[in-house]
């Protein structure tokens, strides 16, 4: 980064070695001292020499040099594409990114991979504190605000373990729609975090079909010895990703939604579905076409826009939304009569 004539960006030795390594590893011809001075933070010629000497002496880097033709440095040709700095090396931005990822994971699901990530996180924070003037206050500066999030419950870790180890699960599950407690054996495929809640996508051996289970509705779970049935990624994508939202399945229809000009500029920037199609109409309104199978969640999404959206097609979806709106109006009419 250049700040202007005569200005220098202070870069510590850790970062200088990292930058020099990347530059020499990628170069197919000698890198001039001038280029290294710029890359290492507008440093002096003496600093470039010290960095190169330290890389040779302490890191066994295959650095070669010449003072002819203005001088330059390069990695020996037989090691240029294979030599790596010993240990785990990251620059400051990459270290900060690792901390951010760890923080995000902790906010999304507290305790997930905590024991595995804790040693790495401690090492990253130590490197930042020692080499980059102190670590960022990640927890204070990054906020994740959940909306209608439900606790994943006590069985999340068992589900995650089964997904990663490719083992079957025996579980008791109480669905919200029917409020029935059922026992099932499933082959977990994926954990999905959708709208601040966790879902377990799995092959249900009771119904011989793919199903999605809300993790917080699992009442008991046991890890089995049998290997999970493997479902190809393409089939999982067709079932869980091609229709709208978590209520997936093969899409059976296309919803045509028309938003008022007032709401159009917001909806036009939103992604409701990977295969959606949208266009502005002559009056400034916006038409959005969405493939869907089960209409449950789509109707919920439509209703939140109130008078700013109209279902143009299909007729069945339009009638369903009209019915829900009429039911809502009836509730308010009864309240007014009291």
Explain the overall architecture.
The protein has 11 helices and 11 strands. The longest helix has 23 residues, at 315-337. Helices cover 39% and strands 23% of the residues. It starts with 12 loop residues before the first helix and ends with a helix. It has helices at 13-26, 33-39, 45-59, 92-108, 114-131, 138-141, 156-165, 233-241, 261-267, 296-303, 315-337; strands at residues 63-66, 72-75, 167-174, 181-194, 197-204, 209-214, 218-227, 253-259, 277-280, 286-292, 309-313. It has a 5-stranded antiparallel beta sheet, sandwiched between helices. Strands 9-10-8-11 form a 4-stranded antiparallel beta sheet. The protein has a two-stranded antiparallel ribbon with strand order 1-2. By secondary structure, the protein is an alpha+beta fold.
């Amino acid at each position: 980064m250049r700040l202007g004539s005569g200005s220098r960006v202070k870069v510590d030795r850790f970062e200088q070695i990292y930058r020099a390594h990347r530059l020499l590893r990628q170069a197919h011809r000698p890198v001039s001292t001038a280029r290294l001075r710029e890359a290492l933070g507008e440093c002096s010629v003496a600093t470039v020499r010290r960095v190169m000497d330290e890389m040779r002496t302490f890191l066994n880097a295959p650095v070669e040099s010449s003072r002819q033709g203005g001088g330059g440095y390069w990695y020996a040709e037989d090691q240029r594409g294979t030599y790596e700095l010993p240990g785990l090396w990251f620059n400051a931005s990459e270290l900060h990114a690792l901390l951010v990822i760890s923080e995000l994971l902790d906010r999304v699901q507290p305790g997930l991979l905590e024991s595995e990530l804790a040693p790495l996180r401690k090492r990253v924070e130590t490197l930042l504190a020692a080499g980059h003037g102190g670590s960022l206050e990640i927890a204070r500066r990054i906020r994740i605000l959940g909306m209608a999030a439900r606790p994943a419950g006590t069985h999340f870790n068992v589900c995650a373990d089964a997904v990663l180890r490719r083992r079957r699960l025996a579980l008791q599950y109480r669905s919200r729609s029917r409020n029935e407690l059922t026992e099932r054996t499933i082959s977990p495929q994926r954990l999905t975090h959708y709208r601040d809640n966790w879902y377990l996508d799995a092959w249900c051996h009771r119904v011989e079909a793919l199903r999605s289970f809300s993790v917080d509705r699992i009442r008991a779970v046991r890890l089995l010895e049998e290997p999970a049935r493997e479902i190809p990624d393409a089939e999982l994508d067709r079932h869980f990703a091609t229709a709208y939202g978590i209520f997936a399945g093969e899409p059976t229809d296309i919803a045509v939604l028309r938003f008022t000009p007032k709401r159009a500029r917001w909806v036009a920037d939103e992604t409701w579905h990977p295969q959606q199609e949208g266009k502005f109409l002559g009056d400034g309104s916006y038409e959005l076409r969405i493939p869907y199978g089960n209409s449950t969640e789509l109707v919920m999404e439509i209703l939140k826009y109130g008078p700013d959206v109209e279902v143009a097609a299909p007729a069945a979806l339009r009638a369903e939304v009209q019915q829900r709106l009429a039911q809502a109006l009836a509730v308010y009419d009864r309240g007014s009569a009291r």
